[in-house]
Amino acid sequence: MSEFMADLEGKCPKTTKFNDFFVKLKDYMASFDSTSPQSKDIQAQLSIKSESLFRAMSAFSGTKGGTSEDSWRLVDGLLSLGKGLIEMNKSGSKDITFEQRKELIQSLVKWTRGIGVFVKMASESEGHPIDLSSFGIDYVPSPSKRSLYETHGTFSLPQYLKDLPQTSKDFESFACNGMLDFMSILEAKCPGTAEFKDFFAKVEDYMTTFKSGSKDIKVEMSDKSEKLFRAMSLLDGGKAGTVESWRMIDGMLSMGKLLAEVKQNGSKDLTFDQRKEVIGTMVKWARAMGLFVKVASEKKGKSIDLSSFGIDYTHYYSTLPLKGPNGEL
To answer: Where do the structural domains in the chain lie, given as residue ranges?
Structure first.
């Protein structure tokens, strides 16, 4: 990590802002060094150092005060690697398991990419382009779906469902990709506040539980559902028992149950009744999510138009594409 940060700093403009950023970044990462006398008080140190680092990040005009996609990617990478290093320290001298090695490698890649892209964008905003190819990691920053949707287009659920797969084994990725696309454009319509960002992050985290394959899925769901419910309550004005809230919870549970049932079918073809249930459940989930966000957004003074999703949010949508046993619509 020290070599990476030193090499990266060498590519940057020699300015006070970049010098301060790397000083704060190195100081933050030093907190995870198990040989450091400060490591015993790591939480208190991290609180102070993370605030200093964030101020250093915010000094760059190209990062929009630390709230850009690149800034959040860097923060995510720091937290991911920090968590991994803390867990490694707790293991003491024990051998690292295969799963731990895999997770640590992924965290390191995420960390280096997050820092690399942030620095690249910050440097280019200062008129100094940086080539990151020498680090051997794909640093091509993919534009956020939010910005793409704001600029170029929309997402229609009926149109998406026309490509509903024939077999059970292909449904999980199809459903998850569709849900992520739906949430991306829905988030793009919302106020860009911390509460909405947190809500969508918790929804996505909750939905990943259904494809994790974890033996402790019930424990994971309990923890993640509690976090999601708290995020919902903040948007709901503290009224966690509204109709919109319970409708959304029902939609989430229905989708989770469906994904579990379809997975049990293995590679079998989806029957007509199963395809009908799949479509109905995805519509139920999307409608519940849309209505909850619409009401929450309007409480913040921003009206949302959900018509682009192609779903009737007032009455049950009965014209979705659905093929019968003989292929008829």
So the answer is: 2-135, 145-309
